[in-house]
Amino acid sequence: MDISIVGSGYVGLVTGACFADVGHNVICVDNDSRKIESLRAGKVPIYEPGLEEVIHRNVSARRLRFTGSIEDGVANSQIVFIAVPTPQQPDGSVDLSFIEKVAREIAGVLTDYRVIVDKSTVPVKTGEKVAESIKRYNRHGASFDVVSNPEFLREGCAVTDLMNPDRIVIGAQGERAIDLMKKVYEPFMAPILVTDINSAELIKHAANSFLALKISYINAVASICEASGADVEKVADGIGMDRRIGRNFLNAGIGYGGSCFPKDIAAFITISEQLGVPFNLLKEVQRINAGQRERFLKAIRDTLWVLREKRIAVWGLAFKPDTDDIRCSVAIDLISDMLREGAHVTAYDPKGMERAREVSAIADAKLVGSALEAVEGAEALVIATEWDEFANVDLGLVKERMATPIVFDGRNLFDPGTMANVGFHYHSIGRKAVAPR
Ligand code: UGA
Fold first, then answer.
1. Global pTM?
2. What is the whole-number distance in angstroms between the Cα of residue 409 and the centre of ligand 1?
3. Where do you find CATH 3.40.50.720 in the chain?
4. What residue ranges line ligand 1, CB within 6 angstroms?
5. DSSP character string of 125-156
């Protein structure tokens, strides 16, 4: 099939590359000419495992190309996906101006029937607006269908997620659009759920907020574990073995971050209020999430007494492992909190350093080249992101390099018994703190 994708960010680029990899002809469109130039030169602007290879393979096979022109994309494809950013506004609602602009631009160059697919995460009823807008600016009166096709990929494993989806959701009205969409997804051999457009849009918000709710749920349980001397990892295993619950997304920690959950939960709360059915449960999810960082900081303060002039090493800047994305990263917020209290922070992340250098809130942190360099002379180590590289580090060396061997593990990366044996004072989430043996 001939497909174009407007917006070459995380979702657009990975989707385009994977569509090409299963045999479609794909044109990725972006209005950032520097990004298009760099993609044409073979440079991939984001770190995502496996993405570069897929892009290079499909560019060489001439199934994937990049353009700055929407007209080029629309003229040369049967289906046009919209995958542009939908950023959060200060009041929690979503800024849909990029979607609206792209809808207008597509309408202006529409000469024949096209399926226009929204892949960006949007509040329910956005599809109706997109259809209205295209109708209004459709100069040539071409026929079209609007479809909602939410994306469920996770950063850090986006290519694997996209190639092996749990399900494909197609929110559409007409048979013609549904048939074309089914052809796009045929090679993925995944279950396809066809719904109306509003339901498809809601599925995305409901899925993300349910996952966030699971995380906040286990984090609330973690607090009870700490107060009662239980172990949240064991509790999560025990409830997760119930197939109705499942163990995924029950990892306690310093809270969820990233470009999706915080924004989508806020947007779902806002749209539910606008619809007159406030979703207050999600406000509690947000409250618990914000509280995790506070509680973690309190534990650091309780142990170190004052943070002023303390040398604190931080492992992790990205909002999760296997990505260079630092948007809404709890690690960054934590560092900023500790700097504000006068601590001297030295931080390291395997992939997030370059982006972190641009964040003014942590400009006073020293970013160094390795996990071991970060702990040199440190009075405490804070683990904020659970990279494998940290899990595989030589703990004996870490202890040797630190001035005082105190570890605050915000992602439960290590086993408390092991840490005590190496000689650390070890604090984690929802588990008993341990002293050196
Ligand atoms: C999330 C969803 O998982 C995807 O299905 C969705 O497509 C995507 O948002 C999106 O809307 O685009 P993502 O934000 O990339 O994906 O990453 P997740 O793996 O979901 O992690 C989100 C946050 O939750 C991270 O900060 C992670 O550390 C945290 N988390 C995750 C936990 O604290 N505990 C867990 O058990 C799982």
1. 0.96
2. 19
3. 2-195, 205-437
4. 121, 151-155, 208, 211, 215, 249-251, 253, 256-258, 260-261, 264, 319-320
5. THHHHHHHHHHHH-TT---EEEEE----PPTT
